[in-house]
Recover the amino acids of this structure.
């Protein structure tokens, strides 16, 4: 495998979160009964005409501005002609020669912590097709046109990604960005965010691109990684065994973990693109573009840099915490409530909280553990009401019951013992119960100090204040 | 006798309660029924709905309400979608198609009070110049039923010519209003591209299609157009500009109007009898005070080839939706998807439509796009520039609407190129998007001849004004074929 370089370009389709479709007034909400959200325009009825949704345009401009791209003062909608039952008009309205967004860039962080800038060739507006349904319809194909006409932003990267990992990092970054911008809900299961991967390989050092295969419609980060890995291996093995890669469209089968040929270049459609005469060229003036740009939220990279500067977090933590706006907002709410310990807040959000959310497949926005509740727990660590260790137990109880930290601590009697006399009593009991160990310790076996810490903790149900315990033990053990 | 009155007169009489809409509509329906075997101008006759609408119009008029067209009988070219009434577009493909909605034009005329008597015959998907490509049989010219009425709005022109209705909607992509208006001796106006909404008007070539009117006189056309025109947010290519009152100011003198006589239109293809009528019309205009001078449009000879690239290209894409899946003709028991597409479309479309879909598909294909489609678009810009230059010098352009008068049915069907040349004088206005009219200006061997007037963008009022002044001086527009008089 060494001696080869992988070249990947991604085409990401982000469904824009507009209320209605890109060229009609029908709702674009997901999950309605088949064909209940398709109006005459979506159905391609004779005589109907498309009218561009201004909100979709605004969202595309938002994206373009966020990636530092050029926003076209004039862009053109074109028809991509082909026959398919889920394509009612017999053509898809897309943008071809003059897209609304061109020449942007997105930074990704590589495994070694270095930053790589990935070029975004273009991003264009287009309408989605309907869906062909096979499940539960033996012998026939059902057509659901609810999705027909849903606005998409197709984001095309330069072929600058060099591994499946880089591709996933890029895809995740775009995913983060579109959600920050509130232009796409990012729901991959519902197909709101999906991608085609163009994959080729070439001998290391070559500057000529190899023949590429396009893997269509992959809708999870994991599948993208696996599909690309499979495809790279397939192409290298093919070439090394004397074969040649053919330009074709391939499908990833997640069950078998492989890509399969769908159609070759020869079978590909001639889409006969031409400017859609039903839509005038889209003209945007400077004022509009500036106004949209002025409304951008704080973007992930800027937010991460701020978290480092403001809270003294490591860059890694800041990167993790800014993966979504909700997560970052959550973190900041906790950090503000526990101002002396921003790193402690980061550890808890990234650690126990994330683990608990992942375990139940929950989103931070689900509200299962409001920020002020977690902050309440951390406050009790900071003021030494409980130890960090006990805090984990308290957290679990809070997670299960929905109670506040104080209630859990109270109900379970987990309040830390900071009364020196009580700790001393416990130490004396432990010493009395373990004369042999005590003798050994006194004979110079220092390692046994830890044994006594453990025994006292056990005796106090873990509630002894660790610092105090240490101090008292040091005083009492030597006798 | 009431059928002989102009729409302007009928609207006034109805408002003055000198006559009832029901009475008028009954008369017209009777005439339509009687004319069908000879003319075949209608694809659908909607007698019941028409009588209901006439009653409603009478009630409104009795209250002193009712729109400007309250109670007047009209017809729609059968490519304007009409809710609840089938809209065939002259094709077998849409034989069973009942539109669930009204076209904007239909809606507006309804709101103005017009009563729709039926849907008018036309060339299939508006592709044709003789009405012979209609799946519902050709329309016959009321002046001589062995002759074509012109196309594609042949039903609209024939029905107005025979005074079956007072006015009709029509569409013009390359001459489909002006050519049949000329051949039937009636008045037709193709407005500026974007003046009348295309929403609900079944598309042939979207960048050229424009809805308009065929009526008995310029004054009638003005009255109709005033109600039809205007911005429609459902059509992104419709223009958001105020609609002037086309009826006002029609009487003003023509004094000082600068008219350019289109040099290239008086070529060897122009029939001498037609030329004689046109020249006479020019002298009438001169007598009315217009200043005439010759004007040249140097690139005009490129119109027909450019048109037969652009129009088929757009049609090949516009007609892709007729696939047998959601509406329209579907073949019997298709074996698979390919079979469904192939047979539904092969059976549903006629020869001319297929010819244009194939031409259009070809010119848009990889490797040919630049050579044909892009080049044709450049030609279009040249022609538009020619017009712009001309309108820097003159107010209006005039010339013949067609090279000859109506020709015999069947005489050109076997030769598409000869048929296409019928539109040689009309196509350029579509390519440039400018408004144009045809008005009757005489007879060549017993058949009507049309004078074409072309104006700059949004100069409909100027066209209608010149036409009306001409019609005040002449009576060609008042002539009705004897058997329908």
């Amino acid at each position: 495998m060494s001696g080869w370089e992988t070249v990947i370009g991604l085409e990401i389709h982000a469904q824009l979160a507009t209320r209605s479709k890109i060229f009609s007034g029908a709702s674009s909400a997901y999950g309605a009964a088949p064909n209940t959200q398709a109006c005459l325009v979506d159905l391609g009825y004779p005589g109907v005409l498309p009218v561009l949704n201004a909100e979709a345009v605004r969202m595309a401009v938002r994206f373009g501005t966020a990636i530092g791209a050029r926003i076209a003062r004039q862009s053109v909608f074109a028809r991509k002609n082909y026959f398919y039952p889920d394509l009612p008009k017999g053509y898809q309205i897309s943008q071809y020669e003059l897209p609304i967004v061109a020449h942007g860039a997105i930074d990704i962080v590589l495994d070694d912590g270095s930053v790589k800038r990935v070029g975004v060739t273009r991003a264009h507006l287009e309408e989605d097709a309907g869906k062909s349904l096979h499940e539960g319809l033996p012998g026939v194909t059902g057509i659901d046109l609810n999705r027909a006409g849903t606005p998409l932003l197709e984001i095309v990267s330069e072929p600058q990604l060099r591994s499946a990992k880089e591709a996933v990092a890029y895809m995740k970054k775009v995913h983060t960005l579109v959600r920050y911008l509130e232009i796409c809900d990012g729901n991959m299961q519902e197909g709101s965010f999906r991608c085609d991967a163009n994959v080729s390989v070439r001998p290391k050092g070559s500057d000529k691109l190899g023949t590429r295969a396009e893997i269509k419609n992959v809708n999870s980060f994991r599948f993208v990684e696996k599909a690309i890995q499979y495809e790279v291996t397939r192409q290298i093995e093919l070439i090394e065994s004397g074969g040649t890669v053919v330009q074709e469209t391939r499908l990833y089968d997640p069950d078998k973990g492989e890509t399969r040929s769908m159609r070759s270049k020869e079978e590909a459609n001639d889409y006969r693109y031409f400017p859609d005469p039903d839509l005038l060229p889209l003209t945007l003036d400077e004022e509009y573009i500036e106004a949209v740009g002025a409304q951008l939220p704080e973007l992930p990279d800027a937010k991460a840099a701020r978290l480092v500067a403001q809270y003294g977090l490591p860059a890694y933590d800041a990167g993790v915490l800014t993966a979504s706006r909700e997560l970052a907002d959550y973190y900041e709410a906790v950090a503000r409530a526990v101002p002396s310990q921003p790193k402690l807040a980061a550890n808890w959000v990234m650690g126990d909280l994330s683990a608990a959310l992942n375990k139940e497949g929950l989103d931070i926005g689900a509200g299962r553990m409001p920020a002020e509740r977690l902050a309440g727990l951390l406050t009790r660590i900071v003021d030494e009401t409980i130890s960090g260790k006990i805090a984990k137990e308290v957290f679990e109880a809070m997670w299960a019951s929905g109670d506040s930290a104080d209630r859990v601590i109270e109900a379970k009697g987990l309040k830390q013992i900071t009364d020196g006399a009580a700790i001393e009593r416990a130490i004396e009991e432990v010493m009395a119960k373990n004369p042999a160990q005590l003798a050994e310790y006194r004979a110079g076996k220092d390692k046994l100090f830890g044994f006594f810490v453990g025994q006292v903790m056990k005796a106090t149900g873990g509630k002894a204040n660790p610092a105090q315990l240490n101090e008292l033990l040091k005083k009492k053990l030597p006798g | 006798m009431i059928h002989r009155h102009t729409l302007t007169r009928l609207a006034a009489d109805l408002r003055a309660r000198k006559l009832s809409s029901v009475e008028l509509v009954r008369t017209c329906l009777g005439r339509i029924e009687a004319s069908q075997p000879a003319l075949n101008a209608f694809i659908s006759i909607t007698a019941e709905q028409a009588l209901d609408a006439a009653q409603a119009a009478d009630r409104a008029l009795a209250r002193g309400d009712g729109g400007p067209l309250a109670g007047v009988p009209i017809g729609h070219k059968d490519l304007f979608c009409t809710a609840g009434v089938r809209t065939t577009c002259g094709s077998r493909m849409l034989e069973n198609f009942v539109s669930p909605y009204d076209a904007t034009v239909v809606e507006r005329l309804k709101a103005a009070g017009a009563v729709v008597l039926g849907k008018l015959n036309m060339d299939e998907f508006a592709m044709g110049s003789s009405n012979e490509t209609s799946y519902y049989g050709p329309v016959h010219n009321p002046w001589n039923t062995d002759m074509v009425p012109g196309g594609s709005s042949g039903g609209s022109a024939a029905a107005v010519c025979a005074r079956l209705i007072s006015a009709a909607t029509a569409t013009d992509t390359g001459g489909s209003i002006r050519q049949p208006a000329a051949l039937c001796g009636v008045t037709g106006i193709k407005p500026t591209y974007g003046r009348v909404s295309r929403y609900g008007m079944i598309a042939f070539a979207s960048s050229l299609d424009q809805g308009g009117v065929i009526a008995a006189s310029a004054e009638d056309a003005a009255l109709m157009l005033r109600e039809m025109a205007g911005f429609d947010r459902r059509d992104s290519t419709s223009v958001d500009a105020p609609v002037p009152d086309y009826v006002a100011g029609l009487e003003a003198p023509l004094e000082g109007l600068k008219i350019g006589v289109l040099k290239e239109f008086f070529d060897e293809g122009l029939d001498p009898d037609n030329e004689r009528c046109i020249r006479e019309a020019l002298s009438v205009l001169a007598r009315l005070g217009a200043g005439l001078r010759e004007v040249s449009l140097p690139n005009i000879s490129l119109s027909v080839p450019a048109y037969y690239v652009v129009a088929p290209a757009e049609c090949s894409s516009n007609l892709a939706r007729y696939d047998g899946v959601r509406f329209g003709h579907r073949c019997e028991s298709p074996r698979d998807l390919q079979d469904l597409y192939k047979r539904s479309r092969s059976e549903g479309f006629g020869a001319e439509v297929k010819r244009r879909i194939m031409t259009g598909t070809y010119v848009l294909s990889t490797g040919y796009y630049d050579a044909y489609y892009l080049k044709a678009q450049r030609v279009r810009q040249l022609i538009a520039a020619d017009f712009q230059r001309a309108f820097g010098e003159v107010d209006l352009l005039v010339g013949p609407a067609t090279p000859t008068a109506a020709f015999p049915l069947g005489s050109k069907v076997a030769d598409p190129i000869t048929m296409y040349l019928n539109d040689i004088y009309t196509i350029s206005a579509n390519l440039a998007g400018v408004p144009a009219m045809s008005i009757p200006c005489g007879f060549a061997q017993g058949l009507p001849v049309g004078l074409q007037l072309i104006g700059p963008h949004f100069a409909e009022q100027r066209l209608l004004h010149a036409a009306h002044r001409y019609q005040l001086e002449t009576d060609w527009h008042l002539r009705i074929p004897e058997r329908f008089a």
Remarks:
- Chain B has a mean pLDDT of 97.
- Residues 310-375 of chain B form one domain.
